[in-house]
């Protein structure tokens, strides 16, 4: 994993557990300033304690962010403006496979509303804060996007609710947005990059223990046996995300993930996404619906 040696300020959403935590720890260990953007303040403080146990000189800041409430997103961006120049947004946080349908504060199904719409609003509002020469937005994709399509009439519609099916829908939405943002930034003459990355099949059970933080979800210990072949720890799964955020040679519109078979595990590599993740007609529908649902609009020009 090649690295850019310049010191960056990186906002990591969902930094209190799982991939977000490990990405934050790795970024801090590489000398970057990390803004821990978390919904739960106590869990955010626990993540800071854990990072400092492993990175003595970590430069950390906190940002309260509840992606399931657009008003919280607006307040978070206002607070972020006081933390100085930002070089990257690592839009990692997410809800995975909720058994029962739940909705955000704005009445959107929780997985799509958090994983996609909350990050859509956060990116739109925070984009002017990004460094104009080196800024990056990294979107957390997933191999689950292979199994999902969106409703052509209403891309944010849920239909019959199934938790894992809805998670897959949230991820195809994230990826459509990430690739479309890359196109629109380029069309506007902006140097800010939009990159999609995914962790493969990454498990808490296969990662090194971090007792201060809670696992993202319960996993049986036997899952550790698959690590390195069909799965890997979330610490390793964070590598493509970190590379997309601060690595050298990353270009806008790229998709980074594990380079092993089926993209389940392995070192960071450029990997292919399903063609429908690059469908600009579908992305335009999603973009319009997302601006309407979030009540935000992107101001794209060469100044961002």
Highest-level CATH class: Alpha Beta
Largest beta-sheet details: 8 strands, mixed
Number of distinct helices: 8
In which order are the strands of the major sheet placed?
3-2-1-4-5-6-9-10
Principal-axis shape: globular
Helix content: 25-40%
**pLDDT averaged residue by residue:** 90
Would you mind describing this structure in some detail?
- The protein has 304 residues and is an alpha/beta fold.
- It has one domain: NAD(P)-binding Rossmann-like Domain (Rossmann fold, 3-Layer(aba) Sandwich).
- It has 8 helices and 10 strands.
- It has helices at 18-29, 41-54, 70-80, 110-126, 163-187, 234-237, 239-246, 280-294, and strands at 9-13, 33-38, 59-64, 88-91, 136-140, 193-197, 202-203, 232-233, 255-258, 268-270.
- Strands 3-2-1-4-5-6-9-10 form an 8-stranded mixed sheet, sandwiched between helices.
- It is globular and about 50 Å long.
- The protein starts with 8 loop residues before the first strand and ends in a 10-residue tail after the last helix.
- The model is unreliable at 219-228 (pLDDT under 50).
In terms of topology, how is this protein built?
Blueprint: E1 9-13, H1 18-29, E2 33-38, H2 41-54, E3 59-64, H3 70-80, E4 88-91, H4 110-126, E5 136-140, H5 163-187, E6 193-197, E7 202-203, E8 232-233, H6 234-237, H7 239-246, E9 255-258, E10 268-270, H8 280-294
Parallel strand pairs: 1-2, 1-4, 2-3, 4-5, 5-6, 6-9, 7-8
Antiparallel strand pairs: 9-10
Helix pairs in contact: 1-7, 3-4, 4-5, 4-8, 5-8
